[in-house]
Amino acid sequence: MNILLCQHGGSGNHGCEALARTAEMLLRKAFPQGNITLYSYRLGDDELYLRDSAMTLAGLRDLPGKYSPHNLCYHLKKRLLGPDKASKLPITGQFRQLLKNADLVVAIGGDNYCYQMGVGYYALDNLIAASGKPYLLLGASLEPADLEKGLADHLRCFTLISAREPITYDACRKAGLRNVIYAPDSAFLLPPGNAPVVPGLIPEGAVGINVSPLILQSEASGGITMKNYRRLVERILDTTDLQIALVPHVVWEGGDDRQPLTVLYEQYRDTGRVFLVPDANCRDLKALIGRLRFFIGARTHATIAAYSSGVPTLVCGYSVKARGIARDLFGESDGYVVPVQSLDREDALADAFSALFSREESLRAHLRAKLPAYLQTAWSAADAIASLMR
Q: What is the pTM assigned to this prediction?
């Protein structure tokens, strides 16, 4: 039994790493004797962060650059021939051979279809579907409006889609897709590792904060997001005795969380209560996040590490996945997600944290009650995957 994991951007995004690790867990539950190959587009990252994995690692060292011949050809073909004829990702001879040898193909890029409808992946999807191999999209989040614009028609190329939150699942069913199941994001199942040691930081008495360059690009008013994070840090320092742990969750070029976090660290380091957490793999970061008293994050999988550890969490979100996961856990997203696009005053994030702070015990109790069944439902995806090969 040969299984090929694709659409993996590389483990320098520790959310991608968490998905790769937990997809492997689900697949080994479904097929204990399966041979799993992870095809990556930043292979060096995976050799570093996944060196303890039993998966075979393959792929490219780096994606082609913005002005590379591949990228220029992709945009030209997309314009002239249509998105289903142009692949954003290079389709190499190695990938074609792995596809030929595979019995099952799993796309773990569930985020990929909630930005620009995922059009850059259509040609790759069609190639895989044409091979006749069962093709699974694991942990998808989709904008409902995109389904009505033609995305639903494309998604019929998948044998099975697992939607990780109810907004996506309900929208898919409404659009007539019958190849969809509901299963929470597999990263909820990630086991913690060994928390990195940060001298002076006491995680149990700290608020974790994560900022991403991506949300800075999504803000409606220039500079408003960092102004909100500064006010948030000042609110915590002025009104509580808590420390602050600045936690990066993506460290690759062009989207490195350490850049905005370092700006905050340099501004407030002299307080003696603000700490910059070093890079680590996703399991070790989860071990640290799981010990924090609160977490406020922009990266989805950093917040999943907190949610799944029972930590009261506030999301500074920018897409359907943040709203959908919060609604799944709490029945609503108001009070749990602050959409970055709606930030119009500098105290919005600080005020949302103050409200979260006042509900600490009820939130912890809710997560303790919710998580056991929720994690069991996440594991149920393994049974659905196994059924693909029956």
A: 0.95
